[in-house]
Amino acid sequence: MILLNKSKLKNSALIDEADSLKNAGFIGKEQLDFIKKELPVLNSHNNILVRIGFFLLGSFLYSSLCGVVSLLGLSGMDESWKIFPYLFAIIGVVGSEILTKQDYHNHGLDDAFILGLQLNIGFAVGVSTDGDNILAITIAVTIASIISYLRYVHLLSALVFYLAFTATLGYAIFDFLEAGQAILPFFMMFYGIGTYYFCRRLISKLDEPFYYKGIVLIKNMSLILLYFSGNYLVVREFSASLADTYYEVSPEIPFAFFFWIFTFGIPVLYLFFALKNKDRIMLWISFAAVAFSFYSFRFYYSVLPIEIALTLGGLVLFAIAFLSIRKLKHKETGLTFKPDRIANSNAFLNAEALLIASTFGMKPEVKSPESPMEFGGGGFSGGGSEGNF
């Protein structure tokens, strides 16, 4: 299914890990240069600005090709213009196949064509259905994005897949269930929990690392979806936007007390499990969720003026940070304030990098001092049995 060269794809992951090991001080620059010289890799860019630049260039190239096709086919067409989005999607597929076969991966050019084909497939289905069947559009984008991720190992396609699949389930509930609006928040809660544990189980059984980042991305997105599914502000405003009685102030929702508990309880649970499992990304999500929870409360209940609230909030955060640093700065293991030597690593890549070092016969840069005691002698197989020193 994967179109990319698996060997080069794995080598690219090893080079990234070697960079982390070099930054952490485990290997030297000479060893890193040697690894990069010995391992052929894919054409990619880790610099986000360079990648955005190539993405804009690829978008211009893609739109130019679509414009040429449009100019060649517009003459003498009336209703047949609806075929153009399908032709644009085909251009995206052909471009993605050509760039991927030329070892372009996370480069920027390939991003433009891969995302473009998914956009045009959704647009083509929307034009064919006159924009009335949103469920058909989301299903088409879901299928196109998951195929793109599995074939091109494109990380953004994994994000598009999860968002499109979530939208598909949401629209399906509205279309086929009479009480869809009432059960949608609870359904999304269980859906987020199920996605999270499914991804954790999938990661534990993952044999090859190619899809690891995409699964981790979906797992973390499920945490965000779980929080927003039960956030009081989101549920109340979204429910009001779907109703016909939404004027200036949204009406109160049923089970408001439950959603308030959920709004402040989930960030606390995220924080607890992030510290327990040493999950850095979950910790960031918990901080963001705490901030949005207080924003949700102030959206309806303004207890203090904004300047006083911000000042008091800053003082509380400073006190928490100061006390936490004092508590953790002398700890050497577990949860500690000491800097992490490797900010991004996993067991597979560490093991692979060490295997490369041992396979290539890399020697440590620090030479051990020679021993002052000389060994040798002995007439019986080096046993030292000659009776002299």
TrEMBL record:
Q: Which domain of life is it from?
A: Bacteria
Query: Which protein, by its recorded name, is this?
Result: DUF2157 domain-containing protein
The alphabetized UniProt keywords are: Membrane, Transmembrane, Transmembrane helix
Ranges for region Disordered: 369-389
Q: Where is the composition biased (Gly residues)?
A: 375-389
Keyword flag Transmembrane: yes
Residue ranges annotated as transmembrane are 54-77, 134-150, 155-174, 180-198, 210-233, 253-274, 281-300, 306-325
Originating organism: Flavobacterium circumlabens
